[in-house]
């Protein structure tokens, strides 16, 4: 009986102990979860604080950089103003004085324009009389034989095998290249070099001739090539300021007449490095 009683007491005690152990384990688990939650919360708050400090530092750096740029901008602006104050006028006093005498809205007849231009040269050397004609057709190109020559020395050469070799080596010592139709296939070898420079002979420019020697002589004694640039403007020199007005007038009229068919929009003449006059070419 005694043994049965003890066994019964033991059975009653064991569930109680097991229950107590389970309660303790649950308490321990809950405590661990609470601690982990606290640690995680603390860690999250630290991260937020760190991120806030980082943003604040970045903001201060941006403000400092912006302030630096403002200061530099003010410095450069002040320097630019100082440079602008020191900057010399674009033209000399003599040039500006000449411009004041010209009616910029007026179109001058050729004889009157030449008379005025001859008194407007500012250089010590014998200046050229330059003409600039704005046309409607960019494909304007040709040759004109000015009645009184150009007053300029033009280096004209006739294409040969030797000249082709010089061109290949980057040596171009001429203003105009003349050739015969038979020699054009040989010149094709250097077309990519001459073409962009406007030196490739063409029928339209009169530099391809059955008699290259004659063409060379004509070009050296006053025959002139002309063509419109990318802005539809034809530029040419029609003589020297020191020439008699009659010669300058003859050359200028001959040049203008050649371009009439190209629908002239406007025309100006000017001495080298001098102010220009608008021409009445209607």
CATH class designation of the largest domain = Alpha Beta
Number of domains: 3
- Rg, alpha carbons: 46 Å
Q: What is the CATH superfamily classification of the largest domain?
A: Ribosomal protein L1/L10, rRNA-binding domain
Following the backbone from N to C, one meets helices and strands in this order, namely: HHHEEEHEHHHEEHEE
CATH topology of the largest domain: Ribulose 1,5 Bisphosphate Carboxylase/Oxygenase
Largest sheet: 4 strands, antiparallel
Low-confidence spans = none
Descriptive account of the structure:
- The protein has eight helices and eight strands, in the order αααβββαβαααββαββ.
- With 282 residues, it is of the alpha+beta class.
- The protein folds into three domains: 34-87; 104-150 and 224-282, 2-Layer Sandwich (Ribulose 1,5 Bisphosphate Carboxylase/Oxygenase), CATH 3.30.190; 155-221, Rossmann fold (3-Layer(aba) Sandwich).
- The mean pLDDT is 79.
